[in-house]
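Batch 3, record 17
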Amino acid sequence: MFSQLLRRHITPTLQRRATSIEQRRTTCICAQSLQYCENGEPADVLQLVELDISEPKMNEVLVRLLAAPINPADINTIQGKYPVKPPLPAIAGNEGVGEVLRTGGSVQKFKRGQRVVVVENGLGTWRTHANFTEQQLLCIPHEMDLASAATLVVNPPTAYRMLKDFVPLAQGDCIIQNGANSAVGQIVHQLCKAWGLKSIGIVRNRPNLEELKTYLKLLGASEVITEEELAQKDVATKLCKLPSPRLALNCVGGKNASDMAKLLAAKGVMVTYGGMSRKPVMIPTPALIFKSISFCGFWVTHWMREHKGKPERDKMFAELIEFFNKGKLKGAKHEMVPLKEYKTAVAATLNVKGMVGKKYILEMKC
Amino acid sequence: MFSQLLRRHITPTLQRRATSIEQRRTTCICAQSLQYCENGEPADVLQLVELDISEPKMNEVLVRLLAAPINPADINTIQGKYPVKPPLPAIAGNEGVGEVLRTGGSVQKFKRGQRVVVVENGLGTWRTHANFTEQQLLCIPHEMDLASAATLVVNPPTAYRMLKDFVPLAQGDCIIQNGANSAVGQIVHQLCKAWGLKSIGIVRNRPNLEELKTYLKLLGASEVITEEELAQKDVATKLCKLPSPRLALNCVGGKNASDMAKLLAAKGVMVTYGGMSRKPVMIPTPALIFKSISFCGFWVTHWMREHKGKPERDKMFAELIEFFNKGKLKGAKHEMVPLKEYKTAVAATLNVKGMVGKKYILEMKC
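Prediction for the assembled complex:
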């Protein structure tokens, strides 16, 4: 299976190097790695270096990485602006999909050729090879497409947990979210559809608004309105065919979040997972006291850390993978970029334009 | 017992009327009542009228009210600015203590002479007599002093529930609150002391600051600082002998609330129960996402409605009454004012000055 994959992915020149890696399999592997020795702008501080990867230890799994996305948080981590600060020098990247090459003596859960994703944050996935412990990996089926697998561990769990963990929602209940066209936002609408929930999406006004509304409704949104429509006094009338939302998901903050909070049903909850406007969430006192609205935050890194090896985590991934394989979920629009062209991909991530958030995924052809 | 009480409280003139009430006991009672027929300023719209009170129905209890406090929310209700809007004409007042005069045929829990407090909101307590249903009353011991009994149902449960229902606190854990010298704030510090919790109080700067600090520390505060000290960068150093607070109680809002939120431990909760600054609570996104701080509200009226006749409510009142009787709790400073002098008392409540919040309590000498 390893050689089949190589044939599918790599160029003839790189195939020769892969062969030489195969020959060295009992010694060590030379992994191309995007490393940074100090925090700063990725274009300035990232270096593509070759690092020797030793044989896997007893409980380790040697993985040949196939693809790893560039998430905004990865860039913030390199810049040193994120709460996760890996010790330097560090390899960039926090999620990715790969294939098991070899396993340490005590490893039981993984076998050569299996497809795996990295489920722990901060290990460095922007590289061709790495050793991970068993607990840092999750086995996924081969039939899952590479882009969905590479982006399985950050965005889909964020959407999944925010819909599951804050308000008990029954079929027909309604949620509202801003940033509806973000990568997480798109998953939210699809999960709502899969679970029989109504969902209202808020987006910024734009020239191709109707096209975006149609796209999000196809994904599963019950209604899509602009920030301006949300701010209008008659917004509740406009949304009167839908039940008052019991949950609001906020990745914007500022006035947009306050406007969204006004639509929440009594005892509703707003979960914040981003702050794109860079403005705080402002809560009028009466909403807290008399409407019992509460405001929480969600950080997937934290959740994954607290649920390492726990059944809830495995159950979630099983359900998400099933949704992907049945076509009920599709990942964000994406573009595969070879690892060595990382500068272009990082620049494009920092400057995403277009109707819906596009993900740049590094492909580790080596 | 009834006549003994009369002898203790009323003037000779009024005693004659009371005697005439006694004579009419099988017909009806003429109750002096502070009624309003429209919303507006209490001084303009309140009228002291005599209203006939009929014999108690099957499940009713006829109560002679002894004392009822003037809470800010009572004034807001009369003004029509409060979410509770009793149908007009309405009798003002929401809590009070009284004595059972007579009971309806099916009443089993109450007997003549028992001391009772009104536990339901919006029934009108600024009057000399009223019929209540069994469920609207709670029996309290005679030894409880009149002022503590009259103010048992709003402020102490607010403090109690906020300390019990949002964060599981263990002995030695710490909480922080602004408005520490408010009526609720004083109860909070005392309950913390009784339960072995550390508490930090925030107060506004004032000429007699040291006196206030001493007073609140005597009540049970572990530390008392001013709003200005709270806003200083080294505030955490100043409070380093105390554990990071896991719960913040906010009745101010605005910058003060934001400053308090910064001191909260990860996963801490801020509960808002008032908004004296009339400014919203502003939450920086990172506090929500990376520190998992959450923000809720508490409204005692709502809690009491949802826990009508439930064991949690009875358990809470039993514990609070025990604390009052053992001297572990004392109510806010207060002044008794005769019912007919309600205008002075309302004006004084609207213009409270002095070191700690003072409660004006209407005394129903009739």
